[in-house]
Every structure is written in C-alpha cells, then in structure tokens.
Hints:
The complex is a heterotrimer of chains A (478), B (499) and C (116).
Chain A: H1 4-21, H2 26-49, E1 54-57, E2 68-71, H3 73-97, H4 101-122, H5 126-144, H6 150-181, H7 186-192, H8 197-214, H9 223-229, H10 232-257, H11 264-287, H12 291-315, H13 320-354, H14 363-368, H15 370-384, H16 390-404, H17 409-429, H18 446-465, H19 467-475
Antiparallel strand pairs in A: 1-2
Chain B: H1 7-24, H2 30-56, E1 62-68, E2 71-76, H3 79-102, H4 109-128, H5 132-150, H6 156-187, H7 206-223, H8 232-235, H9 241-250, H10 252-268, H11 270-275, H12 278-298, H13 303-323, H14 327-358, H15 369-372, H16 374-388, H17 394-409, H18 412-438, H19 459-477, H20 485-497
Antiparallel strand pairs in B: 1-2
Chain C: H1 7-29, H2 33-55, H3 65-95
Amino acid sequence: xxxxxxxxxxxxxxxxxxxxxxxxxxxxxxxxxxxxxxxxxxxxxxxxxxxxxxxxxxxxxxxxxxxxxxxxxxxxxxxxxxxxxxxxxxxxxxxxxxxxxxxxxxxxxxxxxxxxxxxxxxxxxxxxxxxxxxxxxxxxxxxxxxxxxxxxxxxxxxxxxxxxxxxxxxxxxxxxxxxxxxxxxxxxxxxxxxxxxxxxxxxxxxxxxxxxxxxxxxxxxxxxxxxxxxxxxxxxxxxxxxxxxxxxxxxxxxxxxxxxxxxxxxxxxxxxxxxxxxxxxxxxxxxxxxxxxxxxxxxxxxxxxxxxxxxxxxxxxxxxxxxxxxxxxxxxxxxxxxxxxxxxxxxxxxxxxxxxxxxxxxxxxxxxxxxxxxxxxxxxxxxxxxxxxxxxxxxxxxxxxxxxxxxxxxxxxxxxxxxxxxxxxxxxxxxxxxxxxxxxxxxxxxxxxxxxxxxxxxxxxxxxxxxxxxxxxxxxxx
Amino acid sequence: xxxxxxxxxxxxxxxxxxxxxxxxxxxxxxxxxxxxxxxxxxxxxxxxxxxxxxxxxxxxxxxxxxxxxxxxxxxxxxxxxxxxxxxxxxxxxxxxxxxxxxxxxxxxxxxxxxxxxxxxxxxxxxxxxxxxxxxxxxxxxxxxxxxxxxxxxxxxxxxxxxxxxxxxxxxxxxxxxxxxxxxxxxxxxxxxxxxxxxxxxxxxxxxxxxxxxxxxxxxxxxxxxxxxxxxxxxxxxxxxxxxxxxxxxxxxxxxxxxxxxxxxxxxxxxxxxxxxxxxxxxxxxxxxxxxxxxxxxxxxxxxxxxxxxxxxxxxxxxxxxxxxxxxxxxxxxxxxxxxxxxxxxxxxxxxxxxxxxxxxxxxxxxxxxxxxxxxxxxxxxxxxxxxxxxxxxxxxxxxxxxxxxxxxxxxxxxxxxxxxxxxxxxxxxxxxxxxxxxxxxxxxxxxxxxxxxxxxxxxxxxxxxxxxxxxxxxxxxxxxxxxxxxxxxxxxxxxxxxx
Amino acid sequence: xxxxxxxxxxxxxxxxxxxxxxxxxxxxxxxxxxxxxxxxxxxxxxxxxxxxxxxxxxxxxxxxxxxxxxxxxxxxxxxxxxxxxxxxxxxxxxxxxxxxxxxxxxxxxxxxxxxx
Lengths: 478, 499, 116
C-alpha cells in the first residue's frame, strides 16, 4: 500500500542521495524526482480535499516513540503550493544552471531542501519539526551561497547563524514541554496543555525562535541580503517557501497547540510587529535600487500581512468567522508563494540577460523580454492586491473582519501597504514602457520563462478564483 | 441546455480571450491581430444584442461564482447594465477600427491591442456587475488595464501622465474598497436592487452610511473626474487619440459616473439618499465640477486638453441628474451616459484626425481646417453643437430633461447651472468652429501626412467620427423611438421609482 | 514521569538553562564567527542538559529513552551546522586573508547587503 505521506518525504530524500552519488546525471535525476514528488503531493492534497485527513506512522511505530506524519487541510494546501512552486523552480533551474559545475552542487541541496519542506508540513510531532527545521535552514543557507560571491557568503552565514539561534530557542521550548507533559506528538500535547508558567515559557520560546526564522519585523534584518544575493531559483524558493514553513509553524503553534493559552495582548503584539513589517518593508522596497532587493523587502512586507491576521484570529469566536479568516490567510500565503516565486524567476532571467538587476537601467531588458516583464506584471498584481488575485479577496476579508471585530486600525495598515506596494511595483513596470525597439515575439527562452509565467498567472488569477475549493480543503481532513 | 447563466460571462470573455491571444502574437502579424480584434468586437455586439432582446422580454441573465459564503462574484443584466454595455460595445467596435488606422506604423501594437481588449472587458464587467464587490473587482481591473495604454508612447511625458493617473486611481480605489467592505460588514452582501436596500436598515447605522457614502463617492469620483479629484484627466491626454477617445467616452470616466448612479439608485435608493442629505452634497459637487471644468476649458489652447476639461464638466451632468430627486431628472442623467459618450468620442476622433493628418494639436492652429478636412470638421461641428445643447443633436435631449426634472423638483438653481454651463460651452466651442470654417488656412500645416489619395484622411480614421456624429444626431432626432437611449433611460427610471 | 525530583536532576537541568542563557548572551554580544559558533554549541549543550535531566527516572527504572534519542539527534544536527558554518568561515577567510579572524566574523554591513 503506497503511503503518500511517507513518499512525499522519502522521494526527494532518495533523489538527493542519488544525485550525490551520480553527479553526472544530476539534472535528469533531479527533474524526475521533482515530477514524482509533485505528483505524490498533489495526490495527497486531493485525498485530503475529498474529506479524509491523513495520518501515518513510519515503520508502524506508534506514539510516543515513532515518527508520525499527518496531513490536515492546512498542511495539504501548503504542501500543494510548495510542491507546485518547487516543480516550477526545478524546471527553471535546469535552464538557469545548465550543465555547469554549479548544477551538480545545486541539485543535492535543492532536493534536501524539498525533503525538509515536505517533512515540515507533514510532521506530527514537535521534535520531528525541529529536525526538519534544521535541515531546511542548513540546505537553504548552503544553496543561497551558490553564486560564490562574498556578499552571498556573508549574507548566508548570517542567515545560518540567526537560524540556528532560532531553532535552539525553539528546541528549549520543546524540552520544556517534554519536561512538563512527557509527550511530543502535536495532538497529545495540545490535549495535555494547561495554562501556567511552563506553557507560557514554552510558547514564548518556541514562537520567539520561529519569529526569527520567519523574518518578522524587527527580526527581519537577515532576509534582504540573503534573498537578494542568492541565485534566482534559490531566491524564489527562499522567499516563497522557506519563510512560509516557519510561518506555518507559528500558525500551528498559535492556533492548534497553544489554542487555550494565547492571549489577545500577545496576539496584538504580533499584529503590531506585522504592521511594522508591512509599512517598513514596503517603504524599503520602494527605495530599493535592485530588483531582487525590492522583491526581498516585498517578502518582509507580505510576511507582515500574514501576522496581521493573528490578533483577529485570536479575537474571533470559533466557527464561521475563524474559518473565513483562516481561509483568507491561506489564500494570502498561497498567492504570495506563487507570486514571489514567479517574480524572482523572472528577475533572474532579466539579470542573466543584462548582467545586473539595477532598476534604473532596466529599460532595454524590460522591453526585450516581454514574457519576463509580463510575469513581473502579473506577480505585481498579486503582490499589490488587485483583483482577481487571492490577495484582493484575502484583504477584503481582513478589512471586513477588522471592522467587524472593532480592530479597524489593521484595515488602515493594509490599505497603506496596498498603496505602497502599487508604488514599488509600478516603479518597476514603468520601465517597460519606453522607446526601445519592439520585441519580435513573446517568448525568448521558454524553459525559464514558461514556469515563471505560469506561477505568476496562478497567483494573479488562479488562487483567487479557486477560493471555494481552498475553503473546502481547509475545512476537510480535520 | 440553458445558456442564460453564461451569457454575461461570455460577454466579458469575448474581449478578454482575444486580448490574451493578442499579447502572444508577434508584432508583425497584422492580419491575425486585426482578425482577432474584429472578431471579438463583432462577437460582443451579437451577444449584447441577444441580451438586449432578452432583457426587454424579461429574461434574467446571471453568472455567479461563489468564493465563500457571503462573498460572491455576480454578473447580471438589468436595464441599467444593458444601457452601459450597449454603449461600450458599439463604441468599442468603432474605436477599434479607428485605432487600427491611427496606430499604423506605430510600435508595440500587440501590447496596445491586448490591453485595449482587456480594458473593454473590464468596462463590460463593471456594467454587468451585480453587486458591489464584483463592481469593485472590475473597477480595479480597469485601472490596471488602462495604465499601459496611457504610458504607451514611452516618452517622459507619457511616463509622468501615467504615474499621476495611477496615483489618483489607486488612492481612489483604496477608498472605494474600504467603503465597500465596511458597507458589506454592516449589512451583508447586497446585490444591486432597483430602489436600493439600505433604507430598510436600522436607524443607528445611518451615521456610518453617510461616512461610507463619502468614501464610495471619493473612490468613484476620481474616475468620474469630480472636482477636486479630476487632476489626472488633463495629464492623461498624453495617450494616443484612440485611448483618449476610449477613456473619455466609454471606459474610465463613464465607469466612475456609472458607479455613482449605481450607488445612489441601486444601493442606497434615491429617496433614502435624499433623506440623508447626500443628494444635496452630490449636487453641489456636480455643479461645481460642471462650472469649473467649463471655465478651465476656456483657457486651454491644446485641443485635447480643452476637450479633457470639457469632459470633466460634461460627465458631471450624469451626477447632477442623479442628485435631483425625481424621475425626469433621473432620465436626463442616465441618458446623458449614452449621449455624452457618442458626442465626446466624435470630438476626440476628430482631434486625432487633425493631429495625425495635419500635425494640428492646438486650437490656434485650426484656422481653415474645414476647407482641408470638411467631413471631419462637420463631425466635429455636430459634436460641439451637441455639447452646447442645440437640437436636434442628442445633447439637447439631455439638457431638456435635466432642466424639466429640476423644475418639477423645485431645484431651480440646477436650471441656472445648466444655463451657465451651456453658455460656457458655447464660449469655448463656437470660436473653434468659427476658426475652422471661416478663417483662411495657413500656408503650410505643421506636419502634413497624406494618408489617402481620394479622401481627406485614411478611411479608417474618417469613417468612425462620421458614424458617431450621425449616431448623435439620430439619438436626438429619434429619441422617442423604441430602443433609443431615451426610451431605455425612461424604462430604468420607471423601475427605480415605480416600486 | 516521576514526581520525585532529585536535587541532582534540578541542578543538572538548571545548569542547562544557565548554559543556554550564557550561550545566547555570548552569541549576541561577541563578533567573531568562532565565538558565535561556540556560543551556539553551548546553547545546544544547555538544551541537551535539560533533556538528559528529564530522562532520569530514578535508580530502579531505566532512563526514558526518548530524551536520549533527542539529544543524540541534536548532537548530530549541531555538528553538521557547525561544520557548515565553519565552511562558510573558511570561504570568507580565503577571500581576505589579511584580515584578522575576529574582524570578519561579525557581519556588520548595512542590511541591504552593500558594505558600510
């Protein structure tokens, strides 16, 4: 009996091993693994969507000793997004890295990162999460430095160290929980948890450590240089996926594990930091000189939006309101994942063809690469929150619930963020309208452009209009 | 199989899909692009004709997509949507023909026509929107689709004009968004209902309703160029003439005005809005805009700029009609949606013709144009006379109804505004006509292109303004005929007041 | 979980917490790469102390294997992470061998990646 949960984690791991052993075949093996893993992930998502949550214990060892995997609606939605984005990135990478030396270094690390992502979304106990978190951090830092420049090495070393600080803190929190309750499985801990100093300290430690990894303002300082200096496919993965993994964990802890423990003031604090992220990140994006730096700061801002939901979720009574907010949050996360990945892939194409990514001098490239520019345009639509992207509907719900729950100030933040995002996106797009010669045809390099275009199209059109199935997915498999 | 639910969606897609395909076409494939353009335009006309026939006979057309409980995208056809859709569709066909001729030898045509098509899809979506959220969705898509058209030429002026345009419309969009969400939070998702539904809501919410109205008005007023939110319109004149024609006759400005009409009639309900005192404010704003626009138009030498300020002024007649309580004024405002569209597009087509054929951009350069380009100038004359309000051109019908409606509602100051504005219109249009017909032409035109051997200019540039000028006359002469814009407006007003 | 908390357990666990705090302080305040790495390892050791302390179940019963497994896994992770960080350090060292090793450990560029 094939178990999609185990396969989703085992396939990329196997692929990573194979690619390390047979470096000459790295591209082929890498692509095969990518296709297989994505297939399994989609199978998993459809199974959860049709109504059953999935749970499996590896090797038949049950709790508390075994490694358990489980997928509910939230996990399945993120798994689907992550794997689709990863597939697109893989296709792009075959073209971006070519058959060069860096391709051999890329694939093992990339597949390990993929393993960690799937493992993290599907993990069912706290320690397994820690291991996956570490694997994610290590492979992401190593991948980020693949360009070989000094800036990349410095930025990713900083990323690595900060990440380790975060995960150590998280681990201490886990240790505390084990001391008090003797179990690590997410469901069991949630049942056993009672308010008290242990729970609060554990919450603070675990969430605090994860906040470092999710780059919430003001702990975001490591993100812009790390994402801006990595190779384009890696930047796409870092911004769209790696950061999401940490945020997913924060959500799990906040909404599931510590559900009875979290207080509104604590949530308000996180919301306030999120507001800071939206405003500061958008402002810095507007001032950025380089395209990839702009995208990295845009990620900082988008992360802020996700945290704006926390005070609303905490204040909302159980039932419809919470479900709507959660759906909106997931819409936002999914849309951003697709949009940012598409954006970075297109930016990478622009950088490759002109040798730089300075915004001021983008004119010629923007005109001569219409597919890349169009991708940036579509992704920009999703980042700003123009309809029919998922971001638009997510903001509709965010603003609506903020007004309904009496926390209307978040609405102002969201709107200010929208205007700032429009400013920085159109600052880039305006470069595409100039007096350079008209390109002959739409696509110049299909292998790199089509995945990016599809991702951006999904973000601008697909996710928003698919809100209903996503809501169903989230409600299913509980 | 019942196709009714798909008709509104099909109408929107009939230009969206060709638009996307046009993007993918290479720059050199002229024939395929023209084919796609014309196919889309004609298909749309057929579908809209079918819809008009159906609505007249009481069919219900509705396309609905549920995103979440309480969050639905709805496209539906009622009499008001049909009015706007029909206008958009017919004028799009005409403008497409004009644009194909105008942009001959221009760069980036695939890009232009792609966004052009998306622009019309968005406009039609606005027309067919069945609730406030769907309206906002397509309203914002319109902003997005029109930006590349304003920036098309790629010059620093175009860049600047587009930036200003974007700043105004995005800010307006945000205000509209907040207003709409706030309203939905208070009363749930409201479909546009003739007569409005807010009157039935509890008294305690009235204060918030007033604030929301101003938010919505601010958002809509940007596109509708209500003073003081009109600043983008003169700047956007850097766009090519087909774009100016489209923006000012059909898409953007009308979308804003249409939105105001929808909010007043189908969300608040005209009587409820009157009771809250909102109509008075709207009336004052509209009147201010009408006078201000006309005064500014007097001092403009650039032809397109003068027409732009004229638009600022003229579109507010629609808002003025909405602000007077009474069916006759309503009819006047609504029918002006169509009439102003036809007349203004004629004027812009002619302006484009003068620029392309003779290099004439300024009023001061227009001496004797009538001798060189008689048909164009004739069309221009018809449009100008309509703007002033001289029968039998359609503009007269509008002013007649507005005046009559104001009188029957006791709002005599409105009649004053109408008179003053007509005088001002005459003041800035008649001198142009005098120059064009009665002054001798200069030795050399600024930049003459001979675009046609036998005709005064290329046929695709000549026919559209002639056709629309003819339509303007017909709409005025045959105003009492069935299926005329006036009859439709009357139908809408009856349904609005007749509850 | 035994309710009998031995003094040894308490001391051991508290020492672990102390290590954690010391390591965190050292990480934040010291510049050179190698000092930060040592700080991280000490933080890790601190957490492992806590886990080992939790594993004790008295003299008669064997200790709880789960925390021991966690510690072993944690050690492996810490070693790999340290190795990667050292590899980065060597890479940076190669680029600028004339800088003393305590000058590049703390990356103090502006947050946009350009040099101050």
